[in-house]
């Protein structure tokens, strides 16, 4: 029972991380670590992503 | 999941044998659905529970998803998980980005669903609950979800090309140009009508204005927080934002004590100016400041509200006050919008049943993020079913309130006179009873000055939701729930308006950029500012027309909105039919063909009536000539109160009529152009298309919401392989 609750909680947290795009940073940092490269700072990384959104507007429907 | 899917689906398509267990489960779902439909079909004159509608819908969705969507995916489209998707082939971590299917489902749903499915069904409730229910459920299964899924599939096979690009390349330059103009013009109308809904909900409502206005500083705060204080902490900042949002709603209850009541009691004209200004700044400011954080808030509220609404409906188990089919459906004399059940129910309810606007989102953004081809079923078809569920909930919310009150809220001010006595009398002439005191009490219960002629659907829905939530969750919170509902509707709409203005600006810059290169540079201020100004001026003008129309803006403009949305759907479905034929799958052309045929019948009939009807409440040009004749004779015609208003009606009717005619003609151009291609393609047994050739996929992922045992095992093996590869 308790382990089921913990698993569900983990699942929700995972989903929120992915859906909000927070997971992107972690993926990037992990990748850099595996490849032995120094990652850019989180601030730079998020700016880079924001710049991309600036150029590619997404439509919202009614 | 390359090998497994192939074994499971290729030889038999979607029709492998069902196990005994799943046969029992699906049999039970079918029985529940059949019983609910039977109750809806057979009860006349007696009150029934709203849950019959809810469960008829859910059972139908499950069956359609399991069987029809599967059939379309594996037999008609032949999704092929051995083929690498654009996300896998062109992955750049930005727009091309392999995304978990459940996460992408959330993104796609958040992008397609907004206030549309909440507003249309509320207005259509004037015809009774049954026409709307049938159209929302049957429409989504056979047309709306099919369109979304097919457009998504075809765009995915073309590296995420937009609808306009695909029409140009697959149908022809003439059709493509017509489609491009139609898309832009329809977007303007949609933005104007959505903004009109907000204006109508917020006018003379200081509480509403207070909470909505505060969303702007809240979003700005979130934007700066994410940019400078804690970059990337989206969950954290969204939690703060939502808490502030709830405080803003509660705080609105104290506007009187704060001495802000008069300052925030705004007229519709003032609100129009505010919205236009907001749209302009939202379009030119960097997105991180306003648009992105607003989107987080709006998405969070969207999911929260849907969950609350579903739970609230089941807990409250409300009875339907509405009739199954009202006389307005049969006679076409309804005060909310004019015209008979056919064709007007089918255009009033666009979002939730069939929404052409979705084809703009299903092509372009989402297809570039799909991990596996088979995911178009759950994301395209499933996402649209979810929106349809929202529409059904809205229809229920409008059908559980007292019908006298419903018509007092939704009839234009010209009819109700705007005061309780006249409104009660007007409602009596419609055949319902509500006393002036009851009208005043209803408004007081939710701490609004009045509910009379608060057209646009948002106040009605908010009132219905506050009834349901008060019943379901207890407490004396009717006023809070009402303003909570107004807040999220306004939030969805403003998010659609600011994002839409920006998209419109980019489209305009791109189009003008074809003749004047420099204009295409989106960071060149003169271009971005002027293009933004043009876009807001266009929808701002239509909004102003709606706000000041003596005949009632919703009454006049909502049909135009519905028809244009459905006309866009006609373009999208035409593209789907064309592509199936070009791919040599003429025998399956009926799949999008059913939706297309019905949609063309409905929209062309509605357009014809709106343009040529000699009933002045329906036909724009007849309306124009009736008022013009009266002006020539120096007479005043109700509901106009002076000659200026008479002149206004003449101008507005002309504008609306011309737009209506132009939209219909543009769609006819696209369809005729496509028919030429159909004939050519059928004769040749297929034609080459711009589909990207098969390239093998390495990626492994389950294909439906829940992974099967075999799929989990395959994913595990694949992940091991990846890890081994990394370590090497």
Automatic annotation (TrEMBL), chain A:
Region labeled Disordered — which residues? 39-62
**Top-rank taxon, per record:** Bacteria
Q: State where composition is biased (Basic and acidic residues).
A: 41-55
Pfam families, sorted: Sel_put (PF04328)
Q: What is the designated name of this protein? A: Uncharacterized protein DUF466
TrEMBL record, chain B:
Q: Does the keyword Secreted apply?
A: no
Cite the Pfam families for this sequence: CstA
Annotated transmembrane regions: 23-42, 48-68, 109-129, 135-156, 177-201, 207-225, 237-255, 270-291, 303-320, 340-361, 381-401, 527-545, 557-581, 658-679
Q: Does the keyword Magnesium apply?
A: no
Look up and give the membrane topology term. Answer: Multi-pass membrane protein
Q: Where the protein is mainly located, per its record?
A: membrane
Task: Cite the entry's keywords alphabetically.
Answer: Cell membrane, Membrane, Transmembrane, Transmembrane helix, Transport
Localization, per the record, is: Cell membrane
GO CC terms for this protein?
plasma membrane
Highest taxon listed in the record's lineage:
Bacteria
Q: Which InterPro entries match?
A: CstA, CstA_N
Per the record, the GO terms for biological process are:
cellular response to starvation
Q: Which residues form the CstA N-terminal domain?
A: 50-606
Which family is it part of?
Belongs to the peptide transporter carbon starvation (CstA) (TC 2.A.114) family.
Protein name, entry field = Carbon starvation protein
Species annotation: Kribbella caucasensis
């Amino acid at each position: 029972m308790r382990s089921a609750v913990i698993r569900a909680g983990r699942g929700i947290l995972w989903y929120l991380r992915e859906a909000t795009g927070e997971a992107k940073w972690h993926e990037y940092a992990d990748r850099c670590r595996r490849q032995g490269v120094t990652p850019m700072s989180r601030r730079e990384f998020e700016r880079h992503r924001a710049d991309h959104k600036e150029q590619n507007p997404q439509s919202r429907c009614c | 999941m390359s090998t497994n899917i192939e074994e499971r689906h290729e030889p038999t398509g979607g029709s492998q044998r069902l196990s005994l267990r799943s046969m029992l489960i699906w049999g039970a779902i079918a029985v529940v659905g059949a019983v609910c439909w039977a109750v809806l079909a057979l009860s006349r004159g007696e009150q029934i529970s709203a849950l019959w509608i809810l469960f008829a819908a859910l059972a139908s969705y499950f069956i359609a998803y399991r069987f029809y969507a599967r059939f379309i995916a594996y037999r008609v489209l032949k999704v092929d998980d051995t083929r690498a998707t654009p996300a896998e082939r062109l992955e750049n971590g930005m727009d091309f980005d392999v995304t978990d299917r459940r996460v992408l489902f959330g993104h796609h749903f958040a992008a397609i669903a907004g206030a549309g499915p909440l507003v249309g069904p509320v207005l259509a409730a004037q015809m009774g609950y049954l026409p709307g229910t049938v159209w929302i459920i049957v429409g989504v299964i056979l047309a709306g979800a099919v369109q979304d899924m097919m457009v998504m599939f075809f765009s995915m096979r073309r590296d995420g090309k937009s609808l306009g690009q695909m029409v140009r390349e697959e149908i022809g330059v003439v059709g493509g140009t017509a489609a491009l103009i139609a898309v832009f013009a329809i977007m303007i109308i949609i933005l104007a009508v959505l903004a009109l809904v907000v204006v109508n909900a917020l006018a003379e409502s200081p509480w509403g204005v207070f909470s909505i206005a505060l969303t702007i500083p809240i979003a700005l705060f979130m934007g700066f927080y994410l940019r400078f204080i804690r970059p990337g902490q989206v969950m954290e900042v969204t939690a703060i934002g939502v808490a502030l949002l709830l405080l803003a709603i509660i705080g609105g209850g104290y506007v009187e004590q704060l001495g802000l009541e008069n300052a925030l009691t705004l007229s519709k004209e003032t609100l129009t100016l505010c919205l236009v200004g907001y749209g302009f700044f939202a379009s030119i400011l960097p997105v991180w400041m306003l648009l992105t954080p607003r989107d987080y808030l709006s998405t969070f509220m969207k999911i929260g509200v849907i969950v609350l609404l579903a739970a609230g409906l089941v807990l409250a188990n409300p009875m339907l006050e509405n009739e199954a089919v009202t006389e307005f459906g049969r006679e076409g004399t309804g005060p909310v919008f004019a015209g008979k059940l056919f064709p007007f129910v089918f255009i009033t309810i666009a979002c939730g049943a069939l929404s052409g606007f979705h084809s703009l989102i299903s092509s372009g953004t989402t297809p570039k993020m799909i991990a596996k081809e088979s995911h178009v079923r759950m994301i395209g078809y499933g996402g649209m079913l979810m929106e349809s569920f929202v529409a059904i909930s809205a229809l229920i919310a409008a059908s559980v309130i007292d019908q006298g009150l419903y018509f007092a809220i939704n009839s234009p001010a010209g009819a109700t006179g705007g005061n309780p006595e006249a409104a009660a009398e007007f409602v009596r002439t419609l055949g319902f009873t509500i006393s002036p005191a009851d009208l005043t009490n209803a408004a007081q219960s939710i701490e609004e000055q009045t509910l009379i002629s608060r057209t646009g659907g948002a106040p009605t829905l908010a009132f219905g939701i506050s009834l349901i939530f008060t019943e379901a969750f207890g407490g004396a919170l009717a006023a809070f729930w009402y303003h909570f509902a107004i807040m999220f509707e306004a939030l969805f709409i403003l998010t659609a308006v600011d994002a839409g203005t920006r998209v419109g600006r980019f489209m305009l810059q791109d189009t003008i950029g074809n003749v004047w290169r420099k204009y295409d540079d989106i960071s060149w201020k003169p271009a971005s500012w002027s293009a933004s100004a043009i876009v807001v001026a266009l929808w701002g003008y239509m909004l102003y027309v709606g706000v000041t129309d003596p005949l009632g803006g919703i009454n006049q403009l909502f049909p135009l909105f519905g028809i244009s949305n459905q006309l866009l759907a006609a373009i999208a479905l035409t593209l789907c039919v064309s592509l199936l034929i070009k791919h040599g799958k003429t025998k399956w052309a009926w799949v999008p063909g059913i939706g297309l045929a019905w949609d063309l019948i409905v929209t062309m009939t509605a357009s014809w009536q709106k343009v040529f009807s000699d009933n002045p409440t329906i036909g724009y040009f007849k309306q124009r000539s009736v008022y013009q004749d009266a002006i020539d004779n120096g007479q005043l015609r109700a509901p106009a109160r002076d000659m200026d208003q008479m002149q206004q009606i003449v101008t507005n009717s002309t504008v609306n009529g011309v737009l209506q005619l132009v939209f219909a003609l543009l769609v006819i151009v696209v369809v005729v152009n496509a028919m030429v291609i159909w004939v050519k393609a059928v004769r040749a047994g297929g034609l080459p298309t711009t589909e990207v050739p098969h390239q093998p996929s390495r990626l492994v992922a389950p294909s439906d919401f829940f992974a099967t045992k075999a799929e989990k095992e395959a994913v595990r093996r694949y992940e091991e392989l990846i890890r081994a590869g990394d370590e090497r």
